[in-house]
Write a structure and sequence with these properties.
Layout (H helix, E strand, L loop, with lengths): L1 H20 L3 H9 L9 H13 L3 H14 L4 H13 L3 H14 L4 H13 L3 H14 L4 H4 L12 H7 L4
Helix pairs in contact: 1-2, 1-3, 2-3, 3-4, 3-5, 4-5, 5-6, 6-7, 7-8
Length: about 170
């Protein structure tokens, strides 16, 4: 019976992963819902649940699942990124910043984390932190420079001469 449950769990997890990869989060959520109560999900299943909710822009609902995963897997930068995303979109910018700082503690060499943290710090009006993390992101991967002009999170910094100096260097 136990092996049968594990096989069923794996089937629905793979199905949900496939749906998420295809950009069909509602189908992923439906597949996972067949497993029962999310409070009883394994960490990997709970992460898929949270990611599905996040993809559906149900940010408030995604937070508890993602927070639980972050408690069990504090080195999982994907969950910290997802939490930051949800916190930002629910008006909890300080928590979004803290989530990205936790991600950086787990992987300080990931430019995406520095870039996203720079975005959040820009919105918070924390110029020095924003510019520091943006500089690090660009030093690690100059391709992030291509996203800056379209990134509205940097609007609060656009008129700053230091921001302009950092972002005016061509790729």
């Amino acid at each position: 019976m136990k092996a049968n449950h594990r096989t069923r769990l794996n089937k629905f997890q793979r199905e949900a992963e496939g749906y998420l990869e295809l950009g069909l989060p509602q189908h992923a959520l439906s597949a996972l819902a067949r497993l029962g109560n999310p409070s009883e999900f394994s960490v990997s299943t709970l992460y898929l649940w949270g990611e599905s909710l996040r993809s559906l822009e149900r940010y408030e609902e995604a937070i508890p699942a993602l927070r639980r995963v972050s408690e069990v897997e504090p080195e999982n930068t994907h969950v910290w990124l997802a939490l930051g995303w949800c916190y930002k979109r629910t008006g909890r910018l300080e928590m979004a910043i803290a989530a990205l700082e936790s991600a950086l503690a787990a992987d300080p060499d990931e430019p995406l984390l520095h870039y996203n943290l720079a975005c959040y710090l820009s919105l918070a009006g924390e110029k020095n932190g924003c510019l520091g993390h943006l500089t690090q992101a660009l030093a690690m991967d100059a391709q992030y420079r291509l996203m800056i002009d379209e990134e509205t999170d940097f609007d609060p910094m656009r008129g700053d001469p230091d921001f302009q100096a950092i972002t005016s260097i061509s790729v």
